[in-house]
Amino acid sequence: MQVIDPISLRQRIVMRNGAVCVAELYDLLALGPSGAMGYVLDAIDPERLIATPHESADDGRLLLLQLCERQAAWITAQSMTLTQSFAQSALKREGKDRFAVTRSTVVSEVAMTCGLSEDSADAKLGTAALLSPTGLLADTHAALSRGHLTPWVARALADATWELTPEQILEIQRQVLPRLIKLINPDTGVGCPKGLKSSREAIARVIARVAPERARQRRERAHQERGVKFRLLPESGLMQITAWLPIDKGIAAWDDLESLAQIEQASDESSTTPEVPVRTIDQCRADVFVRAFAHLLDTTKSTGSMPAACGTKRRVGVLIDLPTLLALREGAGEIPGYGPIDPELARILAEDAEWQRFIHEPMTGELLDLGHKSYTPSVRLRSFVNARDPRCTFPGCSRRSHRSQLDHIQPWPQGPTDRANLHPLCVHHHNLKTHGNWRVTRDPATGETHWQSPHGLHTRSPNYFSEFVDPPPR
């Protein structure tokens, strides 16, 4: 691949009065961000994009946006380097100053320079100590400098590991960094960065494997801090209620609220008049939430005691490998569709469980078979697809598959109704694929879903269970 000279490219762009070819933007994508890249981007006029008959100006604008975001990641990496360099140098000053330079002085100066609160500046210094060319997360800093990570994901890794030992931090980085950057081709730069939510889950899985005692300690500390708080929003006439709950009880409560809200919305659709609009699902959740507590209080007052728990047993699915279940190893557990949990909690939730067999391809994690007892073929197929893909397969979407729709990747009847051609999509992304000119393919070998936007942006949604494939040994 030919390496372009950004300075020469800028000169050509200036001579064209800011015009740039879409092909040249792909060259810049492969080159990666740098100080010279900012010099080139500054010369480009987004209204003067030269496209081939197979491209459009909007294709180029989307590429420009991608280049700017990667340049912003590079700038963040430079900021981390300078923050750490300043802190190290300032803390070494002595003798000439009227007082010894302390960390609090450095924090105050960084806060003033960056327009941050002192708490935020202190956090920035802590992150920079890890996320710099001389820090333990130097490889992550390099990936951030290339624009293959977003600043939020890089900071999430630093935030999640700062309490750990140097050996644990290095091992976590070794295992998780390839997972965080794998969606971008290192040679061409084509691809989109991994989202913050899925990145946090990948980080949590590796921490549960490398430092299970820290995951357990954090869970125990959080359990002691469980509670419900509120915040008044007087400007809007609303109040926000936030609850911190154990994950299994919280999931069960949320599923109950969601089911009741859907019943409420269905009732609206069958009984409302044109003058009264159907409530949104969020509005239904809020109304059900308030009514449920009013009903609970009335029942308690009339009976003189709190009602017993509902007799219907709600299941919270947990995924755990056999060695971890038997406490022979410490692998991350998973509540499919929600995210990773530490191995001890996975074993606790598995103590009273009705087991269902999942058979995975050992190298890719692709779900190959699913054990059942008695389901009709159509139910079995839906159950298989929802188990294989616990979430909507649009990149970054967290909508759970059992509340989504099954989409034919190749439209029926040209495409068959089988597990290779089906995947779950939430209503929004199903409509986007069907009517929005998005292209989707599924790799049968790895289970990855490949997406192409209407303007040529390429990204992938990895096989959900690929995160459970053990990393290669050192």
Indicate the topology.
Blueprint: H1 6-15, E1 20-21, H2 22-31, H3 35-41, E2 49-50, H4 57-92, H5 103-114, H6 118-130, H7 138-145, H8 151-161, H9 166-181, H10 196-210, H11 212-224, E3 227-233, E4 238-244, H12 247-271, H13 281-303, H14 322-325, E5 333-335, E6 339-341, H15 343-350, E7 358-360, E8 367-370, H16 377-388, E9 405-408, E10 422-425, H17 427-435, E11 439-442, E12 449-452, E13 458-461
Parallel strand pairs: 1-2
Antiparallel strand pairs: 3-4, 5-6, 7-8, 9-10, 11-12, 12-13
Helix pairs in contact: 1-3, 2-4, 4-6, 4-7, 5-6, 8-10, 9-10, 10-11, 12-13
Structure notes:
With 474 residues, the protein is mostly helical. Among the domains are: 189 residues, no CATH class; 101 residues, no CATH class. It has 17 helices and 13 strands. A hairpin with a 6-residue loop joins strand 7 and strand 8. The longest helix is centred in the N-terminal third of the chain and has 36 residues. It starts with 5 loop residues before the first helix and ends in a 13-residue tail after the last strand. About 1% of the residues have low confidence.
- Name the structural class: mainly alpha
The string of secondary-structure elements, in order, is HEHHEHHHHHHHHEEHHHEEHEEHEEHEEE
Shape: globular
Distance between the termini: 31 Å
- Cα-based radius of gyration, to the nearest Å: 26 Å
The total beta strand count reads 13
State which percent range the strand residues make up. 5-15%
State the helix count.
17
Poorly predicted runs: 372-377
Percent range of helical residues: 40-55%
The biggest sheet, with number of strands, parallel, antiparallel or mixed sense and barrel status, is:
3 strands, antiparallel
Mean pLDDT: 83
Query: Numbering strands along the chain, what is their spatial order in the largest sheet?
Result: 11-12-13
